[in-house]
Specification:
Number of helices: 6
CATH superfamily: Ribonuclease Z/Hydroxyacylglutathione hydrolase-like
Order of helices and strands: EEEHHEEEHHEEEEHEEEEEHEEE
CATH architecture: 4-Layer Sandwich
CATH topology: Metallo-beta-lactamase, Chain A
Number of strands: 18
Largest sheet: 7 strands, mixed
Distance between the termini: 19 Å
Radius of gyration: 18 Å
């Protein structure tokens, strides 16, 4: 498991956490890109799965603690954990504890979207009952994402698990479009993977940071055509990428790639071969 990574960004303290790793089908992760190309960037196992990180973000502002994403759902049981190569317990809670942070200390959870590998620790099982893991937190999500999570269709139903959403409905607070949630902390719509997905941006003292959501799950996915088969609206992903890539390169944003299994921080560069990602060490 990747250790906690700390970065200072203006007035914000950032900890890029790890909720372990997940193994997903490589063909699905790289869509129309042939295996002889993507396998050079992400080596598959004997089941054709590639290793992905799970990288929630902890932000400390002047007066509160904000968690971006809650990691993966392990509640479905052993078969589920075996399929995805998951550990039995949540490293995310262990890492928060190492930082001296209790679940009740989190005052705000920001969701990029509500798939089971991004919102899985919204609830926990305690004495056979589902309870909010972060009992004092507001959960920020785009209105469209919450509506689609509550009313999924056949294609999306397996990704939205009701036990991560319905027990904490009263804790959700929906937004529409780009919004400043706290001073210097913004959510920005990045549709394509889902229509309601959002990225998280931080701006402080001339520095800029973006948590990419599944718009760019890993550095290997940076080239414009490297779009996941999991994306419900791939052509929307392509148009969103063009827009956000320009924004993030011109603004010199430091990026956190949500499923990068190695070092998760980098910047986009634009050259003769198009867009690429370069790792940045704090």
């Amino acid at each position: 498991m990747r250790p906690i990574l700390y970065h200072k960004l203006g007035n914000f303290d950032l900890w890029i956490l790890s909720d372990g790793e997940i193994w997903l089908d490589g063909g699905s992760m790289f869509g129309v890109v042939p295996k002889n190309l993507w396998s050079k960037l992400a080596a598959p196992d004997e089941q054709n799965r590639v290793r992905l990180g799970l990288n929630p973000l902890l932000i400390r502002t002047q007066d509160r603690l904000v968690l971006v994403e809650t990691g993966i759902d392990r509640k479905p049981g052993e078969k589920f954990r075996r399929i995805y190569g998951l550990s039995q317990t949540s490293p995310l809670l262990d890492q928060l504890a190492l930082l001296g942070v209790r679940p009740q200390d989190i005052s705000l959870v920001v969701h990029t979207h509500l798939h089971f590998d991004h919102a899985g620790l919204n609830t926990s099982l305690a004495e056979g009952r589902l309870q909010p893991t972060f009992p004092k937190a507001r959960h920020i999500v785009q209105k469209q994402e919450l509506e689609e999570a509550l009313h999924p269709h056949e294609r999306s139903r397996a990704s939205y698990l009701r036990e991560n959403i319905e027990p904490i409905l009263e804790q959700f607070e929906t937004v529409e479009g780009e919004q400043e949630i706290l001073p210097g902390l913004f959510v920005v719509p990045v549709p394509g993977h889902t229509l309601g997905m959002q990225a998280v941006e931080l701006r402080s003292q001339g520095q800029r940071f973006a948590y990419t959501a599944d718009l760019i799950p890993t550095m290997a996915h940076t080239p414009l055509p490297y779009i996941m088969a999991f994306d419900l609206y791939p052509m929307t992903t392509l148009e969103t990428r063009k827009k956000m890539y320009q924004r993030w390169t011109e603004g010199n944003y430091l990026l956190c790639f949500t499923h990068e299994s190695g070092h998760p921080l980098g910047r986009l560069v634009h050259g003769e071969k198009g867009y690429q990602a370069e790792a940045v060490w704090p």
